[in-house]
Amino acid sequence: MKDDLLNHFNIQGFQENLIAWYQANKRNLPWRENQDPYRVWVSEIMLQQTKVDTVIPYFQRFMEKFPDVYRLASADEQDVLKAWEGLGYYSRARNLQSAVREVVSEYDGKIPDNKEALGKLKGIGPYTKGAILSIAFQQPEPAVDGNVMRVLSRVLHITDNIAEAKVKKQFEPIVTKMISKEDPSSFNQGLMELGAMVCTPKSPLCLFCPVQEYCRAFLKGDQENLPIKSKAKKPKKVAYIALLLKQGKEKIIIEKRKEQGLLANLWQFPMIPSKGKTVHEAEEWFEAKYGWAIQIGKHAGKLKHVFTHLIWELEIYEADVLYAPKKSKLKSVNIHELSQYPFPVSHQKMMKYLH
DNA sequence: AATCCGGGGAC
DNA sequence: GTCCCAGGATT
């Protein structure tokens, strides 16, 4: 990327227009009620790859349940995951709690206000570090997210592929040069708010843009073609037989997922990799893996669930327990107790087939 | 540098 | 269907 991007750029004029627009037009959001570093932190984690409107109710409930670092640090991880249920990227919740526990044990419960300590906490990367330092502590640190890259690639007419890590990193020194020393919080949030409300991915509202006069892409009529971003590859399909496995009339069998990887530590109905398997082979696979003898019965429906890099194709079957070992990975619970466990959305959809 | 990690909403 | 969202961790 060229290093003379800002040579003939009116940084002060850009700052003034952006901050004035932000102050006049910013949305009333729950995490903007004050600058409590804990609230800023939680909101920034929830907002990773997640829209504002999705986050709002989760943030409200999370703050009622875990109002400060001590309440979150001492909580049961399953309760934290339950509060995160449906929000996705569940490692965010587990990393957040792990980092909060470190803040309690190593920093006397006070969230660090320097980038060295903050950046070492689990789940806090370059963006979140800069967001907390600028918003909660008024430090002129860059916070480069997707909005900021889109806005600045247009304003400065940057044509590098923003999907590349090295290109992303190059936005940080640029923001460091552009950021307001007087109000870094409003500057960073202003860039993001502008990206969300005006400088949108498609059909940006340039006629209402407070920094239109500074925008090189608008000058060239190029705003619709920026930023440049290579496409992600398509997710792979994986087929499963998913079981509504009953034990008697009231009990249903569920299973806790592994500690690592996809949907870690969430609960699910038992799933059998079904590629090339007959129903009978699925029963045998299940007995070999769990030691439970089962009988698969009626086909109850099918579900397709799309992840970022994966597609689950679930064939849902009712099934009955013929024999259960005394000790098992599987758990037998009353149907009315299912709501106490954190389930991924795909398996919440499965619950509709229960009767 | 590439891959993994959710879910939803706008179009 | 496509895109992408206040990204980070792992390999």
Automatic annotation (TrEMBL):
UniProt family annotation: Belongs to the Nth/MutY family.
Cited SMART domains: ENDO3c, FES
Keyword hit for DNA damage: yes
Q: Which InterPro entries match?
A: A/G_AdeGlyc_MutY, DNA_glycosylase, Endonuclease3_FeS-loop_motif, Endouclease-III_FeS-bd_BS, HhH-GPD_domain, HhH_base_excis_C, HhH_motif, MIG/MutY
Species in which this protein is naturally found: Tigheibacillus jepli
Q: What does this protein do?
A: Adenine glycosylase active on G-A mispairs.
Query: What keywords were assigned to this record?
Result: 4Fe-4S, DNA damage, DNA repair, Glycosidase, Hydrolase, Iron, Iron-sulfur, Metal-binding
Q: Per its record, how is this protein called by name?
A: Adenine DNA glycosylase
Q: Name one Pfam family in it.
A: HhH-GPD
Q: How is the cofactor bound?
A: Binds 1 [4Fe-4S] cluster.
Main EC class the enzyme belongs to: hydrolase
Q: Which cofactor does it need?
A: [4Fe-4S] cluster
Ranges for domain HhH-GPD: 46-197
EC numbers: 3.2.2.31
Per the record, what are the reactions this protein catalyses?
Hydrolyzes free adenine bases from 7,8-dihydro-8-oxoguanine:adenine mismatched double-stranded DNA, leaving an apurinic site
Instruction: Answer whether the UniProt record assigns the keyword DNA repair to this protein.
Output: yes
